[in-house]
Amino acid sequence: MNKANEKDHLERSVRKAKLNTDALTSIRSWVAEQLAAHEYAKLEQGGHTNTQIPLRSVFIDLPISESPAAQEHRGSRRPFLDGLLKSKPVKLARRIESLAMGRVLQSGAGDEASKNSQESLGISKGTNDAILLIGGPGQGKSTLGQLACQLHRSILIRPFLNELPTSTQEIVKSFTNRRQSKNLQSGDETTFLPKSPLIPIQVSLPELAVWLGTQAQPRESNIPSIINFVTSTPSAKQNGVTAEMLAELISHSPSIIVLDGLDEVGAAEDRERIVESSRRMFAYLASRNASAQILATTRPQGYSEELSQVGLNFTKFYLSPLNKLEAISYAEKLIAAKMQGADQRQKAVD
C-alpha cells in the first residue's frame, strides 16, 4: 500500500471522538512512545539473563488448546495470535446484557438452558466475549499480549512514519514490512497484521494493583480507574494524553484491552480491587456502546475464577507445549537474535 494514500486510523478515531488536532498529536506521540517502550521481548521468566532482545526478531505464533487435557493432541491445537488478529471486537453492552440474561436462564432451567445460554454468550469458536490465556511461567502468554499490541501500534502510526525517530521507524517497518511468517504448527505462511487496527490498552495488573493501593479516595470522576492508571504513566503525561481524552477515544473506536499477569497479584485485597476496577471499566465502555477485544493472562496455579465477577464471559485457552520441530524453529530464531557469527549459532543449535 502507498503510504501517502494509507488510511490514518488514528486521525479517523480522533475525529469520531470529537477531539481536536492537539489531541491527535498527543495520541500519536504516545502510541509511538509505547511502541518503542515495548520493543523488547519479555524473556526473564523463560530463564534468559540477556533479555534485551527485540520482540520483532523472535516473535512467533504459539499453539493453544481449549482444555489442559487436549494440549498433547495435535488436532486440537491451533495458533493463538492468528485467530486473535482475525477476530472482531465485540459490542460490550450486548455481551454484558446477554451474560445477565444467561445467568437468569441458568438459575431456572437446568443444564440444557445453561448450555444454550453459553452458546449465546459466544463460547463457540470465533465469537468469544473475552479471552483468558493460561500458561506457565516463561511459556509466552505475556509476550503474545505484548506482540498483539505492538502490531496494532505499528499499523496506527505507519501513516506518519517519516515523522518518527529513526529507531521507531525501524520497529514499525520490521512489523509491517514482514507480512508473513511461518506458522509453527502447520508450516503455512501466516499474515501477522490486523486488517483493522484497534486502540491498544496494555495493562500490567501487578503495577495496577500497586497504583490502586496508593489511591486514598475514589476520584470524583466517571472515568474508570484503569484509564486513570494508564494515563498516570510518565509517557502519557509527557505527551499530554489525559484520562478524558483516552476515555473518549476508546468509547468511539474499537480497542484491544490486555490485562496481563493476574496470577502475579498475590494479596486478596489487591485482587478485589483489580476485579472491581475491571468491572467498572467494562460497564463504562458498555454504557458508551463501545467495542473491544479483551485479553487477560494468568498462570493456572494463580487463578481462582476471579474474572467471572467482572461482567463478561471469559473463555479459557491454554498454551500448549511446543513439539520438537516447533521448539527447534523457535530456538533458531532466538539463537540468531542473541549470538553473532554463523559458527557460534550453529554450535548452539547442535
Structure keywords:
about 350 residues, two-stranded antiparallel sheet, alpha/beta, about 15% strand, single chain, 10 strands, Rossmann fold, 14 helices, eight-stranded mixed sheet
Strand-residue fraction? 5-15%
Radius of gyration: 20 Å
CATH secondary-structure class: Alpha Beta
Shape: globular
Largest sheet: 8 strands, mixed
Unreliable stretches: 103-126, 179-189
- Termini, distance in Å? 41 Å
Tally of DSSP β-strands: 10
Number of helices: 14
What is the percent of helical residues?
A: 40-55%
SSE run: HHHEEHEHEHHEEEHHHHEHEEHH
Quick one: CATH superfamily?
Answer: P-loop containing nucleotide triphosphate hydrolases
Mean pLDDT: 80
Instruction: Quickly give the CATH architecture.
Output: 3-Layer(aba) Sandwich
Classify the fold: give the CATH topology.
Rossmann fold
Structural class: alpha/beta
Count of discrete domains: 1
Describe this entry's structure for a reader.
The chain is of the alpha/beta class and 350 residues long. The protein has a single domain, classed as Rossmann fold (3-Layer(aba) Sandwich). It is built from 14 helices and ten strands. Helix 2 crosses helix 7 (166-176), helix 5 (92-120) packs across helix 12 and helix 8 packs across helix 12 (268-287). It is globular, with a radius of gyration of 20 Å. Mean pLDDT is 80; it is low at 103-126 and 179-189.
